[in-house]
């Protein structure tokens, strides 16, 4: 039931932001995300007030699954309310997002899948942030180094000085 209530909060946040900022798509997504996962963002302030603030534990820098899912749900709700890209009724979109949240909550409890966005993040990083080129350069450098090493051993063994009789 917590996940269904989370979807309700995200939808209410997007709806409220749409009334206040009719053309502010980014603010709708931001307010929906904060309403959906407010505890993750309040932890930053709470840790700062206690004096245990660490830069590595900031929710914006390393978002957890509820934050990522709240961003995705808020984006879908904004597209549903403000554009014609989603032609399904709002109740069906709401139901689909509820099923998404409940399914991944159950899969994290039963199957151990804690973040289903990781494969998409890895693919995005590999394509757009240079991962493919780094891997290709590392692979080619490894093959060139191995070939040079084999060539060096052949020279040592070919002159007869390093052979053991």
TrEMBL record:
InterPro entries to which the protein is assigned, alphabetical: TRIC_channel
Give me the Gene Ontology terms describing cellular component.
endomembrane system; membrane
Q: Which GO terms describe its molecular function?
A: identical protein binding; potassium channel activity
- Location of the region described as Disordered in the Swiss-Prot/TrEMBL record: 145-165
- Indicate where this protein resides in the cell: Endomembrane system
Transmembrane domains' residue ranges: 91-111
Q: Which UniProt keywords apply?
A: Ion channel, Ion transport, Membrane, Potassium, Potassium channel, Potassium transport, Transmembrane, Transmembrane helix, Transport
**Membrane topology, record value:** Multi-pass membrane protein
What is an example of a Pfam family matching this protein?
TRIC
Give the family per the record: Belongs to the TMEM38 family.
Protein name per the record: Trimeric intracellular cation channel type B
* Lineage per the UniProt record: Eukaryota, Metazoa, Ecdysozoa, Arthropoda, Crustacea
